[in-house]
Amino acid sequence: MVKDTKLYDLLGVAPDANASQLKKAYFRLAQQFNPNVPENKEKFQEINNAYELLKDDEKRQLYDRYGLDGMKEAQQGMGGGFGSVFEQFFGGGGMGGGRQQSGPKQAKAIGKEVEVTLEQMYNGADIDVEVERQNKCSECNGVGGSTPNCIGRCDKCNGRGIVIISTQRGNMITQQQSYCPKCQGQGECINDPKNLCKKCNGKRAAIERKVLKVRVEPGTADDFQQTLYQEGNWEPGMSQGDYIIIFKQKKTKLFRREEADLFMDKVIGLDEAVCGTSFKIQHPSGDEITIFRKPGECINHGQILCCKSLGMPIKGRIYEHGNLFIKFEVKFPKQISPEVRELLMRVIGTEDSRKRIGACTELKHDGVKNIELIYMDPSNRTKNADTNRGQREYGDHHDEDHEGGAQQVQCGGM
Ligand SMILES: [Zn+2]
Ligand SMILES: [Zn+2]
Predict the structure, then answer these.
(1) Could you tell me the distance, in angstroms and rounded to a whole number, from the CA of residue 142 to the centre of ligand 1?
(2) Is the CATH number 2.60.260.20 carried by domain 256-331?
(3) What is the model's pTM?
(4) Centroid of ligand 2 to alpha carbon of 179 (angstroms)
(5) Ligand 2 centroid to 239 CA: how many Å?
(6) Fewest CB atoms within 10 A around its CB: which of 86, 191, 225, 356?
């Protein structure tokens, strides 16, 4: 029986939850109460503190036995010793980022980019991300030696972590303090090489590959950075760093995304543009959706129309959505027969247009007074003959001005 369940309640787990259940609960809550949102800060801090305590077996046992109050008394009696977790719970601070307040320094965060589909960003998904990180050597559990008590006072520096290096130059001897190379300034090390861990050779850490479970929330944005708390590198003497996943949205053929809105292009025929249309799309929600325009409601070439709420869900408010905008390209027939033309004119022609259309059959291109429309790539520029010369002269004047000499003063009147 545990003394109090406050911390378990905070994480929403049973008091007999195992390490992986604790971690999952913490992970879920850390996402729910993203600390980057100001109103979540306090709640996240509480959750984080609870997890920090419970994930440490020793502290958890004490907590189960004595409860928070009991631990507080013990802490005062012993003059500290439980470390930063208690300062976070029992006052002293409240400054953001509790984990950095005191205790061992946290190793630098590492991370990677992960491609996710628009569908995963729409619906949310749990994905596996294979990561490479430095962790405690699995053979020696980060001790560096074959037995836990093989570490002793360093015999090179006598436990001081510092050595004096003497160098003789001529008649002069200079002395310099330096970190002990044998214990890396720690004062403790494994003195006997035969006790060194065979796997890591005393380095204590090793590169491991691991598959991390990562939650993609519905409405996640392209380039969003998800911090996985303490899933990054472990380094001797430091607490484990964070792992940062950067979600990159895979390009799709159909949709472009801006914020929570989606954009797509659609080609329709002249008949549809004038008479109404309907077509199906495969929506990122997974549904096949039929989009229509009522008969008689015309669509112009280049017009952008909207399907309300068919955009991406808004993160954290997943019942709200952006919009889907569709830009229409109306494909006109290349040519139409005289019969069709006659029929069309009967329907949409006016006296005025009839006159102008009648004239065009008589007109001849002469390059002077009568000009026929043709197609030409509008991105092709016709160069001015003096384009280059003009630029150079302009540049010269500027240089002169900067140097303060104004010999070629011709620009004044231009
Ligand atoms: Zn090892
Ligand atoms: Zn040493």
Answers:
(1) 6
(2) yes
(3) 0.60
(4) 8
(5) 23
(6) 356
